[in-house]
Every structure is written in C-alpha cells, then in structure tokens.
Amino acid sequence: MASFDTSAFDLTPEEKHVATGEIKSLLVRATAVLARAKAHRSTPDFAEALALADEALRIALDPDACDQSAAPLATCHLYRGHALRGLRRYAGAREAYEAAAAAEPRTLTDGPAVAEAAVRQLQVQGREDMPEAPGPRGTSSSNSGNRGGLDLRGLSRFDTEAGGDAYRPTVTRPGPARRVTRVDPGEQKKGGT
After folding, report:
1. Is residue 4, in this structure, part of any structural domain at all?
2. Cβ 154 vs Cβ 116: under 8 Å
3. Who's near 43: CB < 8 A, 6+ residues apart?
4. Assigned domain for 157 exists
5. What is the pLDDT of residues 13-48, one digit of tens each?
6. Which tens digit of pLDDT belongs to each residue from 51-108?
7. What is the domain count for the chain?
8. Which of 38, 40, 68, 97 suits 3 as a labelling partner, its CA being 20 to 30 A distant?
9. Cα–Cα distance between 99 and 21 in angstroms, integer?
10. Is residue 122 part of a domain?
11. Structural domain of residue 183, as residue ranges?
12. How many CA atoms are closer than 13 Å to the CA of 164, on its beta-carbon side?
C-alpha cells in the first residue's frame, strides 16, 4: 500500500512567517480590546479578547502553521489569562498565567517582561484568593481598588520584531461635565482686570 506524501501541502518558510505575523496582529488587536474592556468593564469585549487570544494561541501551537522559533507563545497565554480573568473565570486565568510564566521566551517581544507580568498576576490572584462570587458590575468581592484586579501594565510592551512601534492603545477618560453659565458683559467689566 502506497503512503500518502503530505510534503506537497507543507507551508513554505515565507508562508509560516506570514502566519507568525498574523499571530502578532491578533495579539495587537487583543491588546486594544483588553484596554477597552478594562476601561468599560465590558463582558463582550473580554469575550472578544479571549477569542483573539485563543486564535493566536491556536496558530502559535501548530508547528505546521507558523515558525515555532518566532511564535510569541507566552504572550498568547498572558493575554488569554487577562481575558479569562475579566470574564471572572479564575481557574482558567490561573492556568493561562502559569503557562505564560513557564513558557520559554522565543522572541524579544516574548521575553522576561511577559513572564514577570504573568507572575505578577499570579501574585495578585493569590492575594485576592481568587474570589468566585463577583460583586456589583463585574468587580471582585474583595475590593482591590484596581477595578477587578486586572494588571494590564505589560500589554503595551508588544513591539514588532523589527523594533518599530506597534499600535499602543491609550485610554483617556473625559473630565467631569462643566456647567456653563451666562456671563453678563457688564459684570465682567466690574470685577475685571
């Protein structure tokens, strides 16, 4: 019986490099969605970020789909942990953070800073004893003062391999509403300068 040769279907190194770029693109999108989710405590945004991180992780774990030496595996696990934590799925978040902390850094963007961020999240979760009962509007029952305890400081550290600036989302909050009152021109002159 003849064996089926699958080498004709293997991706070329260039195609694998494109897939690695797709992983990084998914992670950049996940960064923006996580920042938005954290700012608004939006469950749909956390779910979207989880889907993006899961897709990036699926590609990164497939040796036939991408260049394994350049796949940011630890970053995929870290972002997955952030999304799961935002969804209050604490056991899954802990597993993702542990995987991120234990993953071997493969690229400059997937280096010690990612592992440190994962370890920091595990420490935060340890202090909070992983509350299972959420408080009002998605905050944890232990009032950590950090809007649910998410520490997203490591999110903006994702750069391209070439050293260029990647998209870095910034979240700005509008100031308090100001009441505009009518000022009579005569009053302005009396107390004026």
Report:
1. no
2. yes
3. 86, 87, 138
4. yes
5. 778 778 888 999 999 999 999 999 999 999 999 999
6. 999 999 999 888 888 877 788 888 999 999 999 999 999 999 999 999 888 887 666 5
7. 1
8. 68
9. 22
10. yes
11. 13-132+146-190
12. 4
